[in-house]
Amino acid sequence: MPFSTRISVSFGDTDPAGLVYFPNIFHYCHIAMERFFESICGVHYSRLIEEQHVGFPTVKIDGEFNSPLRYGDVVNLEVSVLEVGNKSLTLGYTISNSSGVACANVKQIVVAMDVRSHQSVAIPAAIRVRLIKI
Amino acid sequence: MPFSTRISVSFGDTDPAGLVYFPNIFHYCHIAMERFFESICGVHYSRLIEEQHVGFPTVKIDGEFNSPLRYGDVVNLEVSVLEVGNKSLTLGYTISNSSGVACANVKQIVVAMDVRSHQSVAIPAAIRVRLIKI
Amino acid sequence: MPFSTRISVSFGDTDPAGLVYFPNIFHYCHIAMERFFESICGVHYSRLIEEQHVGFPTVKIDGEFNSPLRYGDVVNLEVSVLEVGNKSLTLGYTISNSSGVACANVKQIVVAMDVRSHQSVAIPAAIRVRLIKI
Amino acid sequence: MPFSTRISVSFGDTDPAGLVYFPNIFHYCHIAMERFFESICGVHYSRLIEEQHVGFPTVKIDGEFNSPLRYGDVVNLEVSVLEVGNKSLTLGYTISNSSGVACANVKQIVVAMDVRSHQSVAIPAAIRVRLIKI
Q: Can you give the pTM of this predicted structure?
Protein backbone atom coordinates (compact mmCIF):
# COMPACT_ATOMS: atom_id res chain seq x y z
CA MET A 1 0.00 0.00 0.00
CA PRO A 2 1.49 3.33 -0.97
CA PHE A 3 2.10 6.03 1.58
CA SER A 4 0.12 9.25 1.14
CA THR A 5 0.24 12.69 2.71
CA ARG A 6 -1.48 16.04 2.28
CA ILE A 7 -0.08 19.55 1.80
CA SER A 8 -2.20 22.71 1.66
CA VAL A 9 -1.17 25.11 -1.09
CA SER A 10 -0.12 28.33 0.60
CA PHE A 11 -0.34 31.83 -0.85
CA GLY A 12 3.44 32.09 -1.21
CA ASP A 13 3.61 28.90 -3.30
CA THR A 14 1.58 30.37 -6.14
CA ASP A 15 2.42 32.61 -9.05
CA PRO A 16 0.77 35.60 -10.77
CA ALA A 17 -1.47 33.17 -12.66
CA GLY A 18 -2.79 31.84 -9.31
CA LEU A 19 -1.21 28.42 -9.93
CA VAL A 20 1.48 26.61 -7.95
CA TYR A 21 4.88 27.59 -9.37
CA PHE A 22 6.19 24.24 -10.65
CA PRO A 23 9.47 24.15 -8.64
CA ASN A 24 7.22 24.19 -5.56
CA ILE A 25 5.58 20.97 -6.74
CA PHE A 26 9.03 19.38 -6.45
CA HIS A 27 9.37 21.01 -3.01
CA TYR A 28 6.08 19.29 -2.08
CA CYS A 29 7.55 15.97 -3.29
CA HIS A 30 10.58 16.47 -1.05
CA ILE A 31 8.35 17.22 1.95
CA ALA A 32 6.37 14.06 1.12
CA MET A 33 9.64 12.09 0.94
CA GLU A 34 10.67 13.43 4.36
CA ARG A 35 7.33 12.32 5.83
CA PHE A 36 7.65 8.98 4.03
CA PHE A 37 11.04 8.40 5.70
CA GLU A 38 9.60 9.21 9.10
CA SER A 39 6.47 7.13 8.68
CA ILE A 40 7.70 4.15 6.66
CA CYS A 41 11.42 3.98 7.46
CA GLY A 42 10.99 4.85 11.13
CA VAL A 43 13.53 7.65 11.18
CA HIS A 44 13.08 11.40 10.87
CA TYR A 45 15.04 12.63 7.84
CA SER A 46 16.68 15.28 10.04
CA ARG A 47 18.04 12.59 12.43
CA LEU A 48 19.22 10.50 9.50
CA ILE A 49 21.34 13.46 8.41
CA GLU A 50 22.50 14.58 11.84
CA GLU A 51 23.06 11.25 13.55
CA GLN A 52 23.79 8.81 10.70
CA HIS A 53 25.22 11.51 8.37
CA VAL A 54 23.23 10.07 5.49
CA GLY A 55 21.12 12.10 3.09
CA PHE A 56 19.30 11.18 -0.12
CA PRO A 57 20.03 13.83 -2.76
CA THR A 58 18.08 13.63 -6.01
CA VAL A 59 20.06 12.53 -9.06
CA LYS A 60 17.18 12.28 -11.54
CA ILE A 61 13.62 13.54 -11.48
CA ASP A 62 10.93 13.61 -14.14
CA GLY A 63 7.67 15.48 -13.71
CA GLU A 64 4.51 15.62 -15.76
CA PHE A 65 2.06 18.38 -14.92
CA ASN A 66 -1.31 17.72 -16.55
CA SER A 67 -3.57 20.03 -14.59
CA PRO A 68 -2.59 23.00 -12.50
CA LEU A 69 -2.66 23.02 -8.71
CA ARG A 70 -4.33 26.17 -7.44
CA TYR A 71 -4.21 28.33 -4.35
CA GLY A 72 -6.67 26.81 -1.89
CA ASP A 73 -6.09 23.21 -3.01
CA VAL A 74 -5.25 20.58 -0.44
CA VAL A 75 -2.83 18.48 -2.43
CA ASN A 76 -2.63 14.73 -1.92
CA LEU A 77 0.72 13.08 -2.65
CA GLU A 78 0.80 9.30 -2.92
CA VAL A 79 4.36 8.00 -2.66
CA SER A 80 5.30 4.55 -3.95
CA VAL A 81 8.60 2.69 -3.96
CA LEU A 82 9.40 1.77 -7.56
CA GLU A 83 12.87 0.28 -7.10
CA VAL A 84 15.37 -0.28 -4.30
CA GLY A 85 18.99 -0.55 -5.42
CA ASN A 86 22.12 -0.94 -3.31
CA LYS A 87 22.73 2.80 -3.13
CA SER A 88 19.73 4.22 -4.99
CA LEU A 89 16.01 4.41 -4.45
CA THR A 90 13.33 5.20 -7.03
CA LEU A 91 10.14 6.81 -5.80
CA GLY A 92 6.93 7.61 -7.66
CA TYR A 93 4.53 10.40 -6.72
CA THR A 94 0.91 10.73 -7.84
CA ILE A 95 -0.25 14.22 -7.01
CA SER A 96 -3.95 15.09 -6.84
CA ASN A 97 -5.90 18.26 -6.12
CA SER A 98 -8.80 18.75 -3.68
CA SER A 99 -11.26 17.29 -6.19
CA GLY A 100 -9.22 14.09 -6.49
CA VAL A 101 -8.00 14.90 -10.01
CA ALA A 102 -4.50 13.52 -10.66
CA CYS A 103 -2.69 16.72 -11.64
CA ALA A 104 0.94 15.60 -11.70
CA ASN A 105 3.15 12.53 -11.79
CA VAL A 106 6.74 12.56 -10.63
CA LYS A 107 9.42 9.87 -10.75
CA GLN A 108 12.52 10.50 -8.66
CA ILE A 109 15.80 8.67 -8.17
CA VAL A 110 17.70 9.50 -4.99
CA VAL A 111 21.08 8.15 -3.92
CA ALA A 112 22.27 7.54 -0.36
CA MET A 113 25.16 9.94 0.34
CA ASP A 114 27.46 10.59 3.26
CA VAL A 115 26.67 14.26 3.92
CA ARG A 116 30.21 14.90 5.25
CA SER A 117 32.21 13.43 2.36
CA HIS A 118 29.51 13.89 -0.32
CA GLN A 119 30.27 10.28 -1.43
CA SER A 120 27.54 7.78 -2.24
CA VAL A 121 27.07 4.96 0.26
CA ALA A 122 24.90 1.85 0.61
CA ILE A 123 21.36 2.50 1.86
CA PRO A 124 21.48 1.87 5.64
CA ALA A 125 20.26 -1.69 6.35
CA ALA A 126 17.55 -0.59 8.81
CA ILE A 127 16.01 1.65 6.14
CA ARG A 128 16.50 -0.83 3.32
CA VAL A 129 14.53 -3.55 5.08
CA ARG A 130 11.56 -1.20 5.51
CA LEU A 131 11.71 0.00 1.91
CA ILE A 132 11.56 -3.54 0.59
CA LYS A 133 8.64 -4.53 2.82
CA ILE A 134 6.11 -1.93 1.70
CA MET B 1 24.08 29.53 -30.94
CA PRO B 2 22.46 28.76 -27.62
CA PHE B 3 21.60 31.50 -25.18
CA SER B 4 23.42 31.42 -21.85
CA THR B 5 23.03 33.28 -18.57
CA ARG B 6 24.59 33.23 -15.11
CA ILE B 7 23.03 32.99 -11.64
CA SER B 8 25.01 33.22 -8.39
CA VAL B 9 23.97 30.64 -5.82
CA SER B 10 22.67 32.54 -2.80
CA PHE B 11 22.78 31.41 0.83
CA GLY B 12 19.02 30.88 0.93
CA ASP B 13 19.11 28.52 -2.08
CA THR B 14 21.20 25.92 -0.28
CA ASP B 15 20.37 23.16 2.19
CA PRO B 16 21.94 21.80 5.41
CA ALA B 17 24.39 19.82 3.25
CA GLY B 18 25.62 23.10 1.70
CA LEU B 19 24.26 22.12 -1.72
CA VAL B 20 21.58 23.81 -3.83
CA TYR B 21 18.19 22.30 -2.89
CA PHE B 22 17.12 20.68 -6.18
CA PRO B 23 13.76 22.49 -6.60
CA ASN B 24 15.85 25.68 -6.72
CA ILE B 25 17.72 24.31 -9.75
CA PHE B 26 14.35 24.30 -11.53
CA HIS B 27 13.77 27.82 -10.22
CA TYR B 28 17.10 28.78 -11.86
CA CYS B 29 15.85 27.22 -15.12
CA HIS B 30 12.70 29.33 -14.97
CA ILE B 31 14.75 32.49 -14.38
CA ALA B 32 16.93 31.50 -17.35
CA MET B 33 13.79 30.96 -19.46
CA GLU B 34 12.52 34.44 -18.48
CA ARG B 35 15.84 35.98 -19.55
CA PHE B 36 15.77 33.89 -22.73
CA PHE B 37 12.36 35.33 -23.63
CA GLU B 38 13.58 38.85 -23.05
CA SER B 39 16.83 38.42 -24.93
CA ILE B 40 15.86 36.08 -27.77
CA CYS B 41 12.14 36.68 -28.20
CA GLY B 42 12.33 40.43 -27.64
CA VAL B 43 9.66 40.57 -24.97
CA HIS B 44 9.92 40.62 -21.18
CA TYR B 45 8.05 37.62 -19.80
CA SER B 46 6.14 39.95 -17.44
CA ARG B 47 4.83 42.01 -20.39
CA LEU B 48 3.92 38.86 -22.27
CA ILE B 49 1.70 37.91 -19.34
CA GLU B 50 0.30 41.38 -18.58
CA GLU B 51 -0.15 42.75 -22.09
CA GLN B 52 -0.61 39.68 -24.29
CA HIS B 53 -2.08 37.52 -21.46
CA VAL B 54 0.11 34.62 -22.55
CA GLY B 55 2.24 32.52 -20.22
CA PHE B 56 4.23 29.33 -20.74
CA PRO B 57 3.49 26.91 -17.92
CA THR B 58 5.60 23.76 -17.73
CA VAL B 59 3.82 20.54 -18.64
CA LYS B 60 6.82 18.19 -18.54
CA ILE B 61 10.31 18.55 -17.11
CA ASP B 62 13.12 16.05 -16.68
CA GLY B 63 16.26 16.81 -14.70
CA GLU B 64 19.51 14.93 -14.23
CA PHE B 65 21.77 16.14 -11.44
CA ASN B 66 25.24 14.62 -11.80
CA SER B 67 27.28 16.91 -9.56
CA PRO B 68 26.03 19.19 -6.83
CA LEU B 69 25.93 22.97 -7.15
CA ARG B 70 27.37 24.57 -4.03
CA TYR B 71 26.98 27.83 -2.17
CA GLY B 72 29.42 30.27 -3.78
CA ASP B 73 29.07 28.81 -7.29
CA VAL B 74 28.24 31.11 -10.17
CA VAL B 75 26.03 28.82 -12.20
CA ASN B 76 26.02 28.99 -15.99
CA LEU B 77 22.79 27.97 -17.72
CA GLU B 78 22.92 27.34 -21.45
CA VAL B 79 19.42 27.33 -22.96
CA SER B 80 18.74 25.69 -26.32
CA VAL B 81 15.54 25.36 -28.32
CA LEU B 82 14.97 21.65 -28.97
CA GLU B 83 11.57 21.82 -30.64
CA VAL B 84 8.97 24.40 -31.58
CA GLY B 85 5.42 23.08 -31.93
CA ASN B 86 2.23 24.98 -32.67
CA LYS B 87 1.41 25.45 -28.98
CA SER B 88 4.40 23.86 -27.27
CA LEU B 89 8.08 24.63 -26.94
CA THR B 90 10.83 22.24 -25.80
CA LEU B 91 13.87 23.80 -24.15
CA GLY B 92 17.12 22.17 -23.02
CA TYR B 93 19.33 23.48 -20.22
CA THR B 94 22.97 22.58 -19.61
CA ILE B 95 23.90 23.77 -16.16
CA SER B 96 27.55 24.20 -15.13
CA ASN B 97 29.28 25.28 -11.94
CA SER B 98 32.03 27.91 -11.53
CA SER B 99 34.70 25.41 -12.66
CA GLY B 100 32.84 24.73 -15.90
CA VAL B 101 31.76 21.23 -14.84
CA ALA B 102 28.36 20.29 -16.33
CA CYS B 103 26.42 19.51 -13.14
CA ALA B 104 22.88 19.17 -14.44
CA ASN B 105 20.83 18.71 -17.58
CA VAL B 106 17.20 19.66 -17.83
CA LYS B 107 14.67 19.18 -20.63
CA GLN B 108 11.44 21.14 -20.34
CA ILE B 109 8.23 21.30 -22.35
CA VAL B 110 6.16 24.44 -21.90
CA VAL B 111 2.80 25.22 -23.51
CA ALA B 112 1.47 28.64 -24.49
CA MET B 113 -1.54 29.40 -22.30
CA ASP B 114 -4.03 32.23 -22.04
CA VAL B 115 -3.48 33.24 -18.41
CA ARG B 116 -7.09 34.46 -18.08
CA SER B 117 -8.88 31.35 -19.37
CA HIS B 118 -6.09 28.85 -18.55
CA GLN B 119 -6.61 27.40 -22.06
CA SER B 120 -3.70 26.51 -24.34
CA VAL B 121 -3.20 28.79 -27.36
CA ALA B 122 -0.89 28.99 -30.37
CA ILE B 123 2.54 30.45 -29.67
CA PRO B 124 2.27 34.15 -30.65
CA ALA B 125 3.67 34.62 -34.17
CA ALA B 126 6.20 37.29 -33.16
CA ILE B 127 7.74 34.92 -30.64
CA ARG B 128 7.53 31.88 -32.86
CA VAL B 129 9.54 33.50 -35.63
CA ARG B 130 12.36 34.27 -33.19
CA LEU B 131 12.33 30.79 -31.68
CA ILE B 132 12.71 29.18 -35.10
CA LYS B 133 15.56 31.46 -36.14
CA ILE B 134 18.03 30.70 -33.35
CA MET C 1 -7.64 33.06 23.51
CA PRO C 2 -5.00 33.30 20.83
CA PHE C 3 -5.08 31.03 17.82
CA SER C 4 -2.16 28.65 17.41
CA THR C 5 -0.95 26.37 14.63
CA ARG C 6 2.00 24.09 13.95
CA ILE C 7 4.41 23.90 11.01
CA SER C 8 7.13 21.25 10.63
CA VAL C 9 10.45 22.66 9.47
CA SER C 10 11.22 21.01 6.14
CA PHE C 11 14.68 20.30 4.70
CA GLY C 12 14.27 22.98 2.04
CA ASP C 13 13.52 25.68 4.64
CA THR C 14 16.96 25.44 6.22
CA ASP C 15 20.34 26.88 5.35
CA PRO C 16 23.93 25.57 5.30
CA ALA C 17 24.11 26.22 9.07
CA GLY C 18 21.16 23.81 9.55
CA LEU C 19 18.92 26.65 10.76
CA VAL C 20 15.71 28.02 9.24
CA TYR C 21 16.62 30.78 6.78
CA PHE C 22 14.95 33.82 8.38
CA PRO C 23 12.76 34.87 5.41
CA ASN C 24 11.13 31.45 5.80
CA ILE C 25 10.12 32.36 9.37
CA PHE C 26 8.08 35.17 7.82
CA HIS C 27 6.71 32.65 5.31
CA TYR C 28 5.60 30.56 8.32
CA CYS C 29 3.87 33.65 9.76
CA HIS C 30 1.98 34.14 6.50
CA ILE C 31 0.88 30.48 6.49
CA ALA C 32 -0.25 30.94 10.11
CA MET C 33 -2.18 34.08 9.09
CA GLU C 34 -3.89 32.16 6.28
CA ARG C 35 -4.95 29.44 8.75
CA PHE C 36 -6.03 32.12 11.22
CA PHE C 37 -8.34 33.64 8.60
CA GLU C 38 -9.86 30.27 7.84
CA SER C 39 -10.29 29.25 11.47
CA ILE C 40 -11.15 32.53 13.17
CA CYS C 41 -12.64 34.63 10.39
CA GLY C 42 -14.53 31.75 8.77
CA VAL C 43 -13.22 32.29 5.27
CA HIS C 44 -10.35 30.65 3.42
CA TYR C 45 -7.84 33.33 2.43
CA SER C 46 -7.95 32.02 -1.17
CA ARG C 47 -11.74 32.59 -1.34
CA LEU C 48 -11.36 36.02 0.19
CA ILE C 49 -9.06 36.91 -2.70
CA GLU C 50 -10.96 35.15 -5.48
CA GLU C 51 -14.55 35.86 -4.45
CA GLN C 52 -14.37 39.08 -2.43
CA HIS C 53 -11.24 40.37 -4.21
CA VAL C 54 -9.74 41.37 -0.88
CA GLY C 55 -6.21 40.58 0.27
CA PHE C 56 -4.18 41.67 3.27
CA PRO C 57 -0.70 42.69 2.13
CA THR C 58 1.88 43.42 4.81
CA VAL C 59 2.83 47.07 5.23
CA LYS C 60 5.04 46.73 8.32
CA ILE C 61 6.63 43.77 10.01
CA ASP C 62 9.13 43.51 12.85
CA GLY C 63 10.82 40.26 13.83
CA GLU C 64 13.06 39.32 16.73
CA PHE C 65 14.87 36.01 16.47
CA ASN C 66 16.30 35.00 19.83
CA SER C 67 16.99 31.31 19.27
CA PRO C 68 17.33 29.50 15.97
CA LEU C 69 14.70 27.14 14.62
CA ARG C 70 16.31 23.94 13.39
CA TYR C 71 15.61 21.27 10.85
CA GLY C 72 13.38 18.70 12.59
CA ASP C 73 11.59 21.26 14.78
CA VAL C 74 7.81 21.33 14.84
CA VAL C 75 7.25 25.06 15.16
CA ASN C 76 4.31 26.40 17.13
CA LEU C 77 2.96 29.79 16.06
CA GLU C 78 0.58 31.56 18.41
CA VAL C 79 -1.29 34.35 16.61
CA SER C 80 -2.94 37.19 18.54
CA VAL C 81 -4.90 40.20 17.37
CA LEU C 82 -3.19 43.31 18.72
CA GLU C 83 -5.28 45.97 17.01
CA VAL C 84 -8.17 46.22 14.57
CA GLY C 85 -8.36 49.47 12.62
CA ASN C 86 -10.78 50.47 9.90
CA LYS C 87 -8.50 49.25 7.11
CA SER C 88 -5.60 47.78 9.03
CA LEU C 89 -5.02 44.82 11.31
CA THR C 90 -2.09 44.27 13.66
CA LEU C 91 -1.16 40.68 14.44
CA GLY C 92 1.40 39.31 16.89
CA TYR C 93 3.16 35.95 16.53
CA THR C 94 4.96 34.05 19.28
CA ILE C 95 7.00 31.32 17.65
CA SER C 96 8.29 28.36 19.67
CA ASN C 97 10.37 25.31 18.83
CA SER C 98 9.62 21.64 19.65
CA SER C 99 10.92 22.10 23.20
CA GLY C 100 8.53 24.98 23.83
CA VAL C 101 11.28 27.62 23.78
CA ALA C 102 10.03 30.95 22.43
CA CYS C 103 12.48 31.47 19.57
CA ALA C 104 10.97 34.42 17.74
CA ASN C 105 8.45 37.23 18.08
CA VAL C 106 6.88 38.96 15.14
CA LYS C 107 4.54 41.94 14.94
CA GLN C 108 2.83 42.54 11.61
CA ILE C 109 0.53 45.21 10.23
CA VAL C 110 -1.56 44.23 7.23
CA VAL C 111 -3.97 46.42 5.28
CA ALA C 112 -7.13 45.32 3.50
CA MET C 113 -6.63 45.84 -0.23
CA ASP C 114 -8.75 45.40 -3.33
CA VAL C 115 -6.55 42.95 -5.26
CA ARG C 116 -7.85 44.27 -8.61
CA SER C 117 -7.25 47.99 -8.05
CA HIS C 118 -4.46 47.62 -5.45
CA GLN C 119 -6.29 50.27 -3.37
CA SER C 120 -6.82 49.93 0.37
CA VAL C 121 -10.39 49.25 1.51
CA ALA C 122 -12.27 48.84 4.79
CA ILE C 123 -11.92 45.41 6.40
CA PRO C 124 -15.03 43.46 5.29
CA ALA C 125 -17.66 43.63 8.07
CA ALA C 126 -18.05 39.85 8.38
CA ILE C 127 -14.33 39.52 9.08
CA ARG C 128 -14.14 42.57 11.30
CA VAL C 129 -16.78 41.26 13.67
CA ARG C 130 -14.85 38.04 14.17
CA LEU C 131 -11.53 39.84 14.67
CA ILE C 132 -12.99 42.00 17.41
CA LYS C 133 -14.57 39.07 19.24
CA ILE C 134 -11.45 37.00 19.86
CA MET D 1 28.84 56.15 0.25
CA PRO D 2 26.32 53.36 0.59
CA PHE D 3 26.69 50.16 -1.41
CA SER D 4 23.91 49.40 -3.88
CA THR D 5 22.95 46.39 -5.96
CA ARG D 6 20.15 45.35 -8.30
CA ILE D 7 17.90 42.30 -8.36
CA SER D 8 15.34 41.55 -11.07
CA VAL D 9 12.01 40.35 -9.74
CA SER D 10 11.48 36.85 -11.12
CA PHE D 11 8.15 35.17 -11.85
CA GLY D 12 8.53 32.78 -8.94
CA ASP D 13 9.01 35.63 -6.44
CA THR D 14 5.52 37.00 -6.99
CA ASP D 15 2.12 36.07 -5.65
CA PRO D 16 -1.40 35.74 -7.11
CA ALA D 17 -1.77 39.53 -6.83
CA GLY D 18 1.28 39.96 -9.12
CA LEU D 19 3.29 41.52 -6.29
CA VAL D 20 6.50 40.30 -4.65
CA TYR D 21 5.56 38.04 -1.71
CA PHE D 22 7.00 39.97 1.25
CA PRO D 23 9.27 37.22 2.66
CA ASN D 24 11.05 37.42 -0.70
CA ILE D 25 11.85 41.09 -0.05
CA PHE D 26 13.81 39.89 2.98
CA HIS D 27 15.43 37.25 0.75
CA TYR D 28 16.49 40.11 -1.55
CA CYS D 29 17.99 41.89 1.49
CA HIS D 30 20.01 38.80 2.34
CA ILE D 31 21.31 38.54 -1.23
CA ALA D 32 22.24 42.23 -1.05
CA MET D 33 24.04 41.58 2.26
CA GLU D 34 25.98 38.72 0.67
CA ARG D 35 27.05 41.00 -2.21
CA PHE D 36 27.87 43.74 0.31
CA PHE D 37 30.22 41.37 2.17
CA GLU D 38 31.93 40.41 -1.06
CA SER D 39 32.26 43.95 -2.37
CA ILE D 40 32.87 45.97 0.79
CA CYS D 41 34.39 43.45 3.20
CA GLY D 42 36.50 41.71 0.56
CA VAL D 43 35.33 38.21 1.35
CA HIS D 44 32.65 36.07 -0.26
CA TYR D 45 30.04 35.18 2.37
CA SER D 46 30.39 31.50 1.39
CA ARG D 47 34.14 31.55 2.17
CA LEU D 48 33.51 33.37 5.43
CA ILE D 49 31.30 30.45 6.45
CA GLU D 50 33.43 27.63 5.04
CA GLU D 51 36.92 28.90 5.83
CA GLN D 52 36.46 31.18 8.84
CA HIS D 53 33.34 29.35 10.12
CA VAL D 54 31.66 32.68 10.75
CA GLY D 55 28.14 33.57 9.69
CA PHE D 56 25.90 36.55 10.41
CA PRO D 57 22.44 35.32 11.37
CA THR D 58 19.70 37.91 11.73
CA VAL D 59 18.53 38.60 15.29
CA LYS D 60 16.22 41.53 14.57
CA ILE D 61 14.70 42.88 11.39
CA ASP D 62 12.08 45.56 10.79
CA GLY D 63 10.52 46.17 7.40
CA GLU D 64 8.22 48.86 6.09
CA PHE D 65 6.58 48.22 2.73
CA ASN D 66 5.05 51.40 1.36
CA SER D 67 4.58 50.49 -2.29
CA PRO D 68 4.48 47.04 -3.83
CA LEU D 69 7.29 45.63 -5.94
CA ARG D 70 5.90 44.05 -9.08
CA TYR D 71 6.88 41.32 -11.49
CA GLY D 72 9.13 42.96 -14.10
CA ASP D 73 10.68 45.43 -11.66
CA VAL D 74 14.45 45.70 -11.41
CA VAL D 75 14.80 46.37 -7.70
CA ASN D 76 17.58 48.60 -6.39
CA LEU D 77 18.80 47.89 -2.87
CA GLU D 78 20.97 50.50 -1.19
CA VAL D 79 22.77 49.05 1.83
CA SER D 80 24.17 51.29 4.56
CA VAL D 81 26.04 50.49 7.76
CA LEU D 82 24.10 52.01 10.65
CA GLU D 83 26.12 50.65 13.56
CA VAL D 84 29.11 48.38 14.14
CA GLY D 85 29.24 46.72 17.56
CA ASN D 86 31.73 44.22 18.91
CA LYS D 87 29.66 41.23 17.83
CA SER D 88 26.72 42.86 16.06
CA LEU D 89 26.19 44.85 12.90
CA THR D 90 23.19 47.01 11.99
CA LEU D 91 22.42 47.42 8.31
CA GLY D 92 19.83 49.62 6.61
CA TYR D 93 18.26 48.89 3.23
CA THR D 94 16.44 51.36 0.99
CA ILE D 95 14.61 49.40 -1.68
CA SER D 96 13.38 51.08 -4.86
CA ASN D 97 11.51 49.88 -7.92
CA SER D 98 12.40 50.42 -11.61
CA SER D 99 10.92 53.94 -11.54
CA GLY D 100 13.13 54.93 -8.60
CA VAL D 101 10.25 54.97 -6.11
CA ALA D 102 11.38 53.96 -2.60
CA CYS D 103 9.04 51.03 -1.95
CA ALA D 104 10.50 49.54 1.21
CA ASN D 105 12.83 50.25 4.11
CA VAL D 106 14.46 47.55 6.15
CA LYS D 107 16.65 47.73 9.26
CA GLN D 108 18.47 44.55 10.20
CA ILE D 109 20.70 43.53 13.12
CA VAL D 110 22.97 40.56 12.49
CA VAL D 111 25.36 38.95 14.96
CA ALA D 112 28.66 37.24 14.17
CA MET D 113 28.31 33.54 15.01
CA ASP D 114 30.59 30.53 14.93
CA VAL D 115 28.60 28.29 12.56
CA ARG D 116 29.98 25.13 14.24
CA SER D 117 29.17 25.99 17.86
CA HIS D 118 26.28 28.40 17.12
CA GLN D 119 27.88 30.78 19.68
CA SER D 120 28.24 34.50 19.03
CA VAL D 121 31.80 35.74 18.41
CA ALA D 122 33.53 39.07 17.82
CA ILE D 123 33.27 40.37 14.24
CA PRO D 124 36.53 39.27 12.53
CA ALA D 125 39.03 42.19 12.60
CA ALA D 126 39.59 42.17 8.82
CA ILE D 127 35.87 42.66 8.25
CA ARG D 128 35.42 45.11 11.09
CA VAL D 129 38.00 47.52 9.72
CA ARG D 130 36.21 47.63 6.36
CA LEU D 131 32.80 48.11 7.95
CA ILE D 132 34.00 51.10 9.92
CA LYS D 133 35.65 52.75 6.93
CA ILE D 134 32.63 53.00 4.65
A: 0.97
